[in-house]
Amino acid sequence: MISIRYVIAVLFISAAPTIASPAQYHFSFNDHCKNAYDEILKLKLENGSALVETEKLNDPLNLVPVLLENYIDFFRIFISEDETEFYRLKNNRDKRLTLIKKNGDKNSPYYLFVLAEIHLHWAIAKIRVGEYFSAVLEIRKAYKQLNENQRKFPDFKENLKTLGLLHAVLGSIPDKFKWGLSILGMDGDIRKGMAELKNLIIYSNDNEFVYREETITLYAFLLFHLEKKGDQAWDLLKANNFPEKDNLMHIYTCAQIGVHSNRVEESIEILNNKPSGAEYLEFPYLEFLAGLARLYKLDERADIYFKNFVNNTKSRNHVKDAYQKLAWYHFINDNDTVLYMHYMDKVRSDGSSTIDADKQALQEALDNKIPHKGLLKSRLLFDGGLFGRAIEILDEIDENVLADKEKLELSYRYGRVYHEWGKIDRCVKFYNETIANGSNSPYYFAANAALQLAYIYEKKNELETAKSYFELCLSIKNHEYKNSLDQKAKAGLNRIDKMQ
């Protein structure tokens, strides 16, 4: 559920205090609203809703409950990914925007800020159900409102929470699509956005800032997704006492980053201790994460969690991904090719193929080829950060009985494991071997080996060597994932040009 959608989703919890006449509409983040805010962030939505209703009775002119109700709708849609829920709640968007526009104080810094937050909530909700063009228009409105607010109220710290997010995310869009941003009147800069969020966290260390926890969560996800700094993201969360045991959103944040940054055991422990009960919103995707963490260590109980996920989710996303993982599970644990093919049939027939993980699962199903067990095991152990065990599995493989593709993958897997393990001299040998043997093959192994070597030499500041490997990656033709790998190589060349 690794995707920049999952990075934006945890971020749009907004409201802030101001003082207004009791006879006027106003934004007042009082104790009822703060308690509701906390409950909503923990995904105790019924509790949060009850507190919102109390505040509406106590102060009908407070506009913060309007926004809090929008948060509740947003999380219901975002967590469930249920189209029925989206269409049931969709009309609330216009009602709330109309209420804020009609009654909100246009001279308050909270006026445009709150409107932008509502637009962004619904942008993410629309992405969930495939309304992409409408979602872009929502983001454009939010972007313009936040920039106008920043111009009018440059000292309004709260504004930078979401503006920093947009600067970072829009700055990550590939160069070939940035003309579209320009037409829409938007621009982005990853460094600027990340600096804005980091400075907010520093500010919140010494000042009361209602969005401290939200900003930390946002910054951690962006470190992980945009800058590929999983260790820094994890350290940030742990330094700020994540996860709190009664906070289901904390559990998700830590498990999502942990599972995908070589912290399998910690993630399993976090998920084992997740809060449960009727007061919490159902969150089936956590079952998927639990299954993935266990599969990465070849745990014999991994299948239980994937089955729980597919039996309980209302989403069409990650369904193909989960069935692929069930196919792998039965193949590597039971050597059961019948069940492998059964679940690959489910990959072809069930769920959607919108997200990358589901697309890759579907491609494997359409290829209709049973993988090599040893290579698959090493790949899973690598994904779980269990590098020593991954090498042991690779060492057991008899290269003499491998098909040409499998021989190529063997050298590639050695390179990837040694690379992430920090054994650079060994990984360079295997990467170069992969390039030598695979540059004319239809597989991605050689191109990605070249890309990884470019990263290694870029990090060592051997820029000419790095440049040659980025160019080599681009020169390899007609392979899987060419567009994606080419984009990364071009971005690397742009970085080097700026440094030279």
Strand content: under 5%
Number of helical stretches of at least 4 residues: 27
Enumerate the spans where pLDDT stays under 50 for 5 or more consecutive residues.
1-22
- Overall SS class: mainly alpha
Q: What separation lies between the terminal Cα atoms?
A: 37 Å
Shape: globular
How many individual domains? 2
Q: In percent, how helical is the residue content?
A: over 70%
Report the major sheet.
Answer: none
The helix/strand order is HHHHHHHHHHHHHHHHHHHHHHHHHHH
Overall number of strands: 0
Q: Provide mean pLDDT, rounded.
A: 92
Using only CA atoms, what is the Rg?
A: 24 Å
Protein model, in words:
With 500 residues, this protein is mostly helical. It folds into two domains: 4-265, no CATH class; 401-500, Serine Threonine Protein Phosphatase 5, Tetratricopeptide repeat, CATH 1.25.40. Helix content is 71%, strand content 0%. It contains 27 helices and no strands. It has helices at 4-9, 31-41, 45-58, 64-80, 83-89, 92-103, 109-128, 132-152, 157-171, 178-183, 190-206, 212-225, 230-239, 248-259, 264-272, 285-296, 302-312, 319-334, 337-349, 356-367, 373-383, 387-395, 404-421, 424-438, 445-459, 463-475, 482-499. Helix 11 packs antiparallel against helix 12 and helix 26 packs antiparallel against helix 27. The radius of gyration is 24 Å and the shape is globular. 47% of the residues are buried.
